[in-house]
Amino acid sequence: MRESVITTETIANPKSRYGSANASTRHFITQRVTGAINILFLALLLFIVVRLAGQDRADVVGLLGRWWIGVPFAALIANVAIHMRNGMRDTLEDYLAGSMYRLAMLLNTLFCLAVALLGAGAVLKIVFWG
């Protein structure tokens, strides 16, 4: 099948349909919800940064090792990775198309997944195994 070409006339015509309405709505809601959650987690992040300013590794492990600080911090890292993926998706959609867009989105997704797994995993390791 031939991919349809989206032109400025297609976009300007209010009766034309292109893209997935469900995927676009899900993307919009996910971006807003993760952004709001990031704002809520900002107090935790500020507490951790201020509390650990000038401290050594033992103090970092001691603070992050408390489950009521470490587990929400790991959730913050995962949430930021989801928000980062969606934000980069917007940029990639603006500047890339076709197979280059699909490759860039794959790399973006893999990078954000690695950040989430490694970051949250490291914090959870400190919480549960010291």
What's the layout of helices and strands?
Elements: H1 8-12, H2 21-52, H3 57-64, H4 67-95, H5 98-129
Helix pairs in contact: 2-4, 4-5
Describe this structure in words.
The protein is 82% helix and 0% strand. It is mainly alpha-helical. It has a single domain, classed as Up-down Bundle (3 helical TM bundles of succinate and fumarate reductases), CATH 1.20.1300. α2 crosses α4 (67-95). The chain is elongated and about 60 Å long. This is Succinate dehydrogenase hydrophobic membrane anchor subunit. One of its GO terms (molecular function) is metal ion binding. It is found in: Membrane.
Short description:
The chain is mostly helical. Helix content is 82%, strand content 0%. The protein is built from five helices and no strands.
Task: Give the key terms.
130 residues; mainly alpha; 3 helical TM bundles of succinate and fumarate reductases; 5 helices
Question: What is the domain tally?
Answer: 1
Structural class: mainly alpha
| Average pLDDT, all residues | 89
Roughly how many Å apart are the termini?
55 Å
